[in-house]
Amino acid sequence: MKKIILFFISLFVFTATTQAGSIVVEGKFQDKNLYIQNGYSGNGVGFCTYEIIINGQVSTDEVNSSAFEIDFSAFEIKPGTPVTVEIRHKDDCSPKVLNPEALKPRATFEVVTINVDKNGLLNWETKNEMGSLPYIVEQFRWNKWIPIGEVKGNGTMEKNTYSFQTTAHSGENKFRVKQVGYGSVAKTSSSVSYVSTISQPSYTKNSANIQFSGETLYEVFDAYGNVVKRGFGNTLAIDNLAKGDYYLCYDNIMADFKKK
């Protein structure tokens, strides 16, 4: 009877110490491997990690060391391909992924062509996207690049085509696109331009409004450089502005005015 009891006790101890946990890391392959800090199991017998699963398949990586590398080369995964890595480990310890950002999308696109037609339609074609990141469309006006819209990136290595309808100001219009990847690292295309035939608007001002002669994008800055108004249209309300000096940016013009 004592032997039977001891057998069940030993069986319970075995099952309790071999319960497993897992860490899952997901993203898209960026042509980089993962590095794992492993360490020993909680009872000091053997190492913490016992198996690596990549996209549902068991990896042959050697995990019986205090640190190891998850090598994706054996799986022939193409850059930009979705990847799910499951790190299976004993329940009384936990390994650490040292560089989880390796599967985070980066701005890697290459522009094949980019152009803007006479109607302001911006078209661009890219390749080598390793992750789906939005394209930020920017227009150069008032001596700076300003965002005017976004287009979702496909995130594939093959050729991708995009378009965005821009709004012109008078004179030369310049546009570009950019992506911002992991760590706020940005990549920007070259710029393209065309000359618009629309007339440059004028404006009149009273105590309540600034009235433009045509619809225009505008921004108003206070004396400290803070944006206090931003919009698009032919009427700009200024009745709620405090008294003082302001800078008005509209069309491709920069001016100043005083609110009394």
CATH architectural type of the largest domain: Sandwich
CATH homology-level superfamily of the largest domain: Immunoglobulins
* Outline: elongated
Number of strands: 20
CATH topology annotation of the largest domain: Immunoglobulin-like
Mean pLDDT: 90
Structural class: mainly beta
How would you characterize the overall build of this protein?
The strands form 5 sheets. Strands 10, 11, 13, 14 and 15 form a 5-stranded antiparallel β-sheet that branches. Strands 16, 17, 18, 19 and 20 form a 5-stranded antiparallel β-sheet that branches. Strands 1-6-3-4 form a 4-stranded antiparallel β-sheet, with no helix packed on it. The longest helix is centred in the N-terminal third of the chain and has 16 residues. It is mainly beta and 260 residues long. 6% of the residues lie in helices and 51% in strands. The protein folds into 3 domains: 84 residues; 87 residues, Immunoglobulin-like; 57 residues, Immunoglobulin-like (Sandwich), CATH 2.60.40. The N terminus is likely disordered. 22% of the residues are buried. The protein is built from 1 helix and 20 strands.
